[in-house]
Amino acid sequence: MPSDDHESRRSAVHELNNSLAAIVAFSHLIRTDPTLPEALRQKADMLIEEAARTRRIVDELLGVSRPAQEPAPPPAQVPGMRTRVLVLDDEPAIRDFLGRILHRAGYEAVLASDGASALQMVRDDPPDAVLCDHRMAGMSGIAFHSAVAAIDPALARRFVFMSGDVLDAELTEFAVTQGVTLLAKPFDIDSVDRAVAGVTSAVQTGG
């Protein structure tokens, strides 16, 4: 059973990475906005560099390694339809960021702030894929995944867990055994695009 000190450290890491995720995410969102005035682009580049440097420092402190990744593939879309992605996160800034970049990438984003409302969405009009935070008040990501699997087993296979708690061995083990994609906070636009494209590719094949 985790000690109080260990649990306190995990909570601190979670909160730090949630805040840093918003900074990294919105710095990339601002820089890639086609309406951004040219005079502000250099400042936006500096913001991205500092956000990236802060992320590297945090990763070094936590012993986290992020391998280099290829650019994300284009979204997998069914002709005549927009792939619907349910975003469940209790952090308003993260929900807003994800909704914006998913829309910009050609997806339809459906946003939820808690597990109960997200489950109702799954029952009423199932999405094509799910982006789900892990540590949330009321219902953990693992509990939400189990509830989704009971409603729609195929949807449970098109699941991405987002987490600022990179020290959570239970989540890592669950993701491996269930075949669920993990997206560690803080993340950038390319990381989100890559994760979503990976799980939504099954939409076209009916997986």
Give your account of this protein's structure.
With 207 residues, the protein is α/β, with parallel strands linked by helices. It contains 8 helices and 5 strands. The protein has a 5-stranded parallel β-sheet with strand order 2-1-3-4-5, with helices on both faces. The longest helix has 28 residues. It starts with a helix and ends with a helix.
Order of secondary-structure elements: HHEHEHEHHEHEH
Structural class of the secondary elements?
alpha/beta
Q: Strands of the biggest beta sheet: in what spatial order? A: 2-1-3-4-5
Major pleated sheet:
5 strands, parallel
How large, in whole angstroms, is the Cα Rg? 17 Å
Gap from first CA to last CA: 37 Å
List unreliable stretches of 5+ residues: 69-79
Helix content: 55-70%
Oligomer: single chain
The proportion of residues in beta strands is 5-15%
Give me the number of helical elements. 8
Helices, strands, pairings?
Elements: H1 4-31, H2 38-62, E1 84-88, H3 92-104, E2 108-112, H4 115-124, E3 129-133, H5 141-151, H6 153-156, E4 159-163, H7 169-178, E5 181-184, H8 189-205
Parallel strand pairs: 1-2, 1-3, 3-4, 4-5
Summary tags:
single chain, 5-stranded parallel β-sheet, 207 residues, 8 helices, 57% helix, alpha/beta
